[in-house]
Amino acid sequence: MLRITLFLTLVCSVTYVSAGVTDTLLFEVGRLWIQATRDLWSSMKNLVVYLTDTSNMYVWVCLAAVPVVCYYAYKFFWAPLNRVHGFGTLGYVPDAGRSMKETANQVRKRRQCGNPPPAYPNGWFSVMESRMLQVGEVKSVHGLGLDLAVFRGEDGVAYVIDAYCPHNGANMGIGGRVVGNCLACPFHAWQFKGTDGKCTKIPYSDGKIPDVAKVNSYNVLERNQMIFIWFHAEGGQPTWEPPEIEEITSGEWVFRGRSEHYVNAHIEEIPENGADVAHFEPVHSALVTAGTDLRYITSKLWDFGHHTFTGSWEAHSKPEGHIGSLTLKHSLSLFGFHIPVLDLKVTAMQIGPAIVHMFFDSPAGKGVYVQSLLPEEPLMQKMVHHIYMNWMAPPIVGKFFLYSEAVQVERDMMIWNNKKYEGRPVFVKSPEDQMVAKHRRWYSQFYSENSQKLTMRKDSKIEW
Ligand code: FES
Ligand SMILES: [Fe+2]
Q1: What does the DSSP assignment read for 76-92?
Q2: Are 101 and 86 in contact (CB under 8 A)?
């Protein structure tokens, strides 16, 4: 009985004391809260009074800074990223006394080219991004050994024809004018139809238009916000098409940025990189902050983080024989701890010789990188990447993904820009090297008898 009495007395005392303390605490918190609200309100009133005092010079400075801050905030958080690196701006080690650009030009001439396959494989190639060609606009494009005039007729359709006018050789992509769905030459205004390249009008002649007054026109496909042409060394018609990405067409995935690079290498080197899983660790494992220069990516400063990639590549079977796919898992660890929020599952579909759709699934949302290649010269590739991401993901996330991917690609560029194409590589018996061999067999389907061979000198340098 005594124990029970003591216990009850203890409980009552503790309850009484805690109630008192809780009361005091609550009172104090409430008082502080009211005080903070009053302070905030009076600071805001003071700020409004200050900002409306037009006699104060600082007010005008602040007001002038507002649009600048808004513009940069918009650029940083919202506007699509546009990362463009012209030829010779990265991916080389400058010679002593030479700039990066001068070195790049030297490397193009002095580098051994090895024994590469033909320069221009058969397939669909993106000549331009749709957003860059408005109705009534004409642009000049050089690629695949062709000079092309790309224009959008008044019907909104994109047309591609050979640029040189048969009358007297003017380049119609430079200063030509769109008339209806035809392109008028800038020199004497002959008009050529976008659909078949035939001349439809010679402004100063009533006579018959000669049959030879025509230029080549190309099969054009506008898809996934790109303008593609079909190129085939034998003049063959398309046997497949790049698939439509429905999420882009429907607007579910939104454009968040692009990157543009010029790679000094044979076109096949770039897709082959996807099947070359053995290069992921040496080239891509360092943190993005370690930069793009392979000489410094192993710096101690950044070795607290590590990207890990595991993947495999395989060719599809018919009727999708023109597709190869890479499945890849990416994870990041910092100070030895795995960061699951940055895990990425990637499926990269290589569609023909020059298009890649790389679908990813991240904790921030789904999306796709679209890569397109255009050989501007036998060993000079224009490489464009786009990123589209679920509209709900903040734009800055998509921009960051594109930036990270661009940095990784720029590391590859340092290899591509300086290597030779090794037609007889020394492979070992390993799944890694076998995958590259498999990729080469798959890619060989895009060359045909008349595919343009590179003319080599004896020292394996390309004729210049
Ligand atoms: S050169 Fe084109 S119309 Fe004369
Ligand atoms: Fe790579």
Answers
A1: HHTSPEEEE--TTSSS-
A2: no
In this prediction, residue 19 carries a pLDDT of 57
Which H or E run contains 349? strand 344-351
Nearest to 269 by CA among 71, 395, 114: 114
Residue spans of beta strands (DSSP E) within 36-164: 81-84, 123-129, 138-143, 146-152, 158-162
Residues contacting residue 329 through CB under 8 Å, at least 6 positions apart = 309, 310, 311, 343, 344, 345, 346
pTM comes to 0.86
CA 425 / ligand 2 centre spacing (Å): 18
Burial letters for 246-268: b for 16+ Cβ neighbours within 10 Å, e otherwise? ebbeeeebbbbbbbebbbbbbbb
* pLDDT for res 442: 98
Q: Which amino acid is at 207?
A: G
| DSSP code for 461 | P
Kind of pairing, strands 81-84 and 253-263?
A: parallel
pLDDT along the chain (464 residues), means of 10: 60 59 71 87 84 79 88 89 95 95 94 92 98 98 97 98 98 98 98 98 93 97 98 96 97 97 97 96 95 94 93 94 95 93 90 97 93 96 98 95 96 97 95 96 97 79 64
Type of residue found at 98: R
pLDDT (0 to 100) of residue 51:
75
- Residue 369's DSSP bridge partners are 358, 387
Bond into 67 cis (ω within 30): no
pLDDT at position 124, please?
98
Asked whether 129 and 108 are in contact (CB, 8 A), the reply is no
Phi/psi at 159 (5° precision):
-125, 150
Cα separations in angstroms, 177 against 127, 132, 268, 437, 442 = 19, 16, 36, 48, 42
Which residue of 167, 172, 191, 199 sits with most ligand 1 atoms within 8 Å of its CB, as the best mutation to test the pocket? 167
Cα–Cα distance measured from residue 250 to residue 248, given in angstroms and rounded to the nearest whole number: 6
Instruction: Name every protein residue with a CB atom under 6 angstroms from any ligand 1 atom.
Output: 165, 167-170, 185, 187-188, 190
